[in-house]
Amino acid sequence: MSDQSARPATPIKKHRPNRQGRRRLTSDDVTVVEESQLKRAVAAAALGNGMEWFDFGVFAYLTTTLAKVFYPSLSPTLSVILTFATFTAAFIVRPIGGAVFGPLGDRIGRQKVLAVTMIMMAAGTFAIGFLPDFNTIGVWAPLLLLLARLVQGFSTGGEYGGAATFIAEYSPDKRRGFMGSWLEFGTLGGYVLGASLVTVLQFAMPEDTLLSWGWRIPFLVAGPLGLVGLYLRLKLEETPAFQKQQEEAAEREHVKVPFIRLFAENWRALIVCIGLVLVFNVTDYMLLSYMPTYLTSTLGRDATNGLILVIVVMVLMMAVISMGGRLSDRFGRRPVLFAGCIGFLVLSWPALKLVQSESTPLVFVGLLILGLVLVTFTSTMPSTLPALFPTIIRYGALAIAFNVSVSLFGGTTPLVTESLVAWATSNGYSWANDIPAFYLMIAAVIGLVAVWFTKESANVPLLGSGPSVATEEEAEELIAAYADESSEVSKSEWAVEFAMSGPIDIVRPPAESTAEAEAEPEASSPRS
Fold it and tell me: I need a labelling partner for 32 at 20 to 30 A (CA). Which of 16, 284, 287, 288 fits?
């Protein structure tokens, strides 16, 4: 073995600390976000997410109608279960979509991938509006419906993670919770639009007309919506965090760290993300997707009446969701999420009992309780989840973890709940109708554990990124506060980590000449 090969690898110095051993914070390290760009980024991301949930909302609220269109020869219960199974099938391919689009978004950019997912989502939804029914082409009808749902699911795999990442990376640190809450405002807006359109059709059309062609209208609306969303996304610039990451990657082009290795190094954050998404999506799908069917097929209520109640609840949720985001900025993400988990654990069963009552006002109160507790998740998760991962793998890791959890737990909620209710009812169990509450309570317990292991991320920079502020004045104040070693800013966890991030151990390949290494004798240790 030669002396050169035996010589230990020399670290490459990325940043040098100042004379006091602390890395300086400069204006180059602080991102000042333009308000106009921030608003465009939030609007484009929220509209795309609204488009996704418009489709899900339409499908969920038309479940009983679609069951008759695509499975007319089966019993009402079995046809509804098979329709929910078709709805759920899209979630099987969501992790695949996340595994494709997520790493791609980390490599070529968030904006480009979000434009592609927008096109695919709109195309899949639009195609459903042209499908022949079972009476026309037989079994091919539900198979084509399944194919369209798989296209939707694959594209959606890259949607939420990318949209949440996009908003999080554009937002100032002190407003990330508030700005992120608008992503779920778009979700609720999509649901409200889909549910309202279905309700109008059910109210205005005889059932025969609805079954003949009326059910197609909501899906055809997806075409124009998709074009608007695509236009907005194509007008956006890439996020500041991704641009800086790309610049740093170009500087160290000879050092390539595989995505799989980075992914494996963040396994704890991945598990926490899966747990958070579980409680977030089980509660979300239970209220927004399953409750209309529960009111109709299980409790025997009028379909239109149930839809109207859920729509009103969603509108009220939209009215307060940004408030939840502001609370998470002020008090922290963890307190708000803890409150939501405890709320579902304590209130799910009483709220469902109100939903089961014969009084419409009491049914509304029960749904409203569940909706207001859900706001603690919808307002806070879009800023909590992206903060779990560093910039270099944020899109990919979040897309994969999010979609694995949604596929296994969230998206299956309507199908599993309906199946459990049917099973318990057929066996004569008195608690059959209470199964949705038990399901929510179990999810809440898992959520409590996940929140406990979640690191607080309010008002601090994202992992792998420098601070982000709204104005030049804020940037100057932050730099001055960081320079004062007695200030709270200087003593904060992110500041301490930033101060000590001078030398970074990146090992050169053995084949490189040691002459270059000897050119930087200071690189092996920080300046004292």
Answer: 16
**pLDDT beyond 50 at 421:** yes
Q: For residue 75, count other CB atoms closer than 10 A to its CB.
A: 10
Residues whose CB is less than 8 angstroms from the CB of residue 510 and which lie 6 or more positions away in sequence, other chains included: 4, 5, 9
Query: Which positions ≥6 away from 421 have C-beta within 8 Å?
Result: 294, 298, 432, 433, 435, 436
Cα separation, 434 vs 349, whole angstroms: 7
For residue 463, give both structure tokens: 């992992």
End-to-end, the C-alpha distance of the chain in Å comes to: 35
30: which DSSP letter? S
Alpha helices in 16-109 (DSSP H): 35-61, 63-70, 76-92, 94-108
Mapping DSSP onto H, E and C, the string for 262-309 reads HHHHCHHHHHHHHHHHHHHHHHHHHHHHHHHHHHHHHCCCCHHHHHHH
How large is the C-alpha radius of gyration of the chain? Answer: 25
Three-state SS letters, 321-351: HHHHHHHHHHHCHHHHHHHHHHHHHHHHHHH
- At residue 302, φ and ψ (nearest 5 deg) are -65, 130
Cβ pair 393, 266 in contact under 8 A: yes
Give the integer Cα–Cα distance in Å for 425 and 347.
Answer: 23
Q: Which of 437, 311, 331 is nearest to 376 (CA)?
A: 331
Name all contacts of 514-518 with Cβ < 8 Å and 24+ positions apart.
Answer: 514/4, 514/7, 514/10, 517/10
CB-CB contact of 341 with 444 (8 Å): yes
Per-residue pLDDT reduced to its tens digit, 347-369:
999 999 999 998 899 999 999 99
What DSSP state is assigned to residue 463? T
Q: Could you read off the pLDDT of 366-379 as tens digits, one per residue?
A: 999 999 999 999 99
> Nearest 5°: phi and psi at 56?
-65, -40
pLDDT for 527 equals 35
Q: How far apart are CA 492 and CA 224, in angstroms?
A: 48
| pTM of this structure | 0.82
Residue 376 in contact with residue 339, Cβ under 8 Å?
Answer: yes
Neighbour count for residue 4 (Cβ, 10 Å): 11
Do 101 and 399 meet the contact criterion of CB atoms below 8 Å apart?
yes
Q: What is the pLDDT of residues 275-302, one digit of tens each?
A: 999 999 999 989 887 888 788 878 888 7
